[in-house]
Amino acid sequence: MRYAFIFSIVVLLFSCTKETKDKSQFEQRDQDAGKIAFQYEYINFAWGYAHYTWFVDTNGVVRYYRTNIRYHQTSDRYETWKSTDSAGYISTSDLQFNYALCYTIYRLDSSEVRQKSKLISLVDETTLTDSINAMADAGAAVLYCYIWDPSKQKYKRLLLKQEGDWDRSNLNANAMVLSHWLINKGEQEIKQFFWYY
């Protein structure tokens, strides 16, 4: 009986060590993956539902998602996409869930992405213009960046620029630099991109 007890304790200790090791490997892999920094999103409800988006993480990895539902078709992917709350906040798990729905399509220069990511903390959302109705049935093409809010333990999605049915811009100088850079990267390198002019 005593040997069975000692054997149980030894097995328990080894299993805890393995779990800790697995957890640290997971955390390292998570750090290596890069944090989600930017997002382009196009949504249109005219004549059905279209949703195209890509994320850029701090390592320069671009991951793409697309669903296109016309008329009365349904899609499990549309129903599972996690949205931000009305204030623009999203949990880490929901953001990672969306990221996992995407697939890698491109890799930007990681040093350039990290340099641009440093501007995110300087973006001010109080400098947003009013929405102006510009088109009809065009949908919305929007550029965002993400910043971690430690007080809420969530990511905050900050609007940089929106065009389509309703136009809106962030006039903060850093937001304008990031918008211009993302539009340029979307058109010149990523290619899975639609912007209005």
Secondary-structure blueprint of this entry?
Elements lengths: L1 H32 L2 E9 L4 E9 L3 E9 L6 H5 L8 E2 L1 H10 L1 E5 L2 H8 L14 E2 L6 E10 L4 E11 L1 E4 L3 H18 L7
Antiparallel strand pairs: 1-2, 1-7, 2-3, 3-5, 4-8, 6-9, 7-8, 8-9
How would you describe the overall organization of this protein?
With 197 residues, the protein is an alpha+beta fold. The protein is built from five helices and nine strands; from the N terminus they run H-E-E-E-H-E-H-E-H-E-E-E-E-H. It folds into two domains: 1-33; 36-190, no CATH class. It has helices spanning 2-33, 76-80, 92-101, 110-117, 173-190, and strands at residues 36-44, 49-57, 61-69, 89-90, 103-107, 132-133, 140-149, 154-164, 166-169. Strand 2 (49-57) and strand 3 (61-69) form a beta hairpin. The protein starts with a helix and ends in a 7-residue tail after the last helix.
Q: Into how many domains do the coordinates divide? A: 2
The geometry reads as: globular
Proportion of residues in β-strands: 25-35%
Mean of pLDDT: 81
Report the total helices: 5
How many strands, what sense, and barrel or not for the largest sheet?
A: 9 strands, antiparallel
Report the end-to-end length measured between terminal Cα atoms: 79 Å
Contiguous low-pLDDT stretches (5 residues minimum) are: 1-32
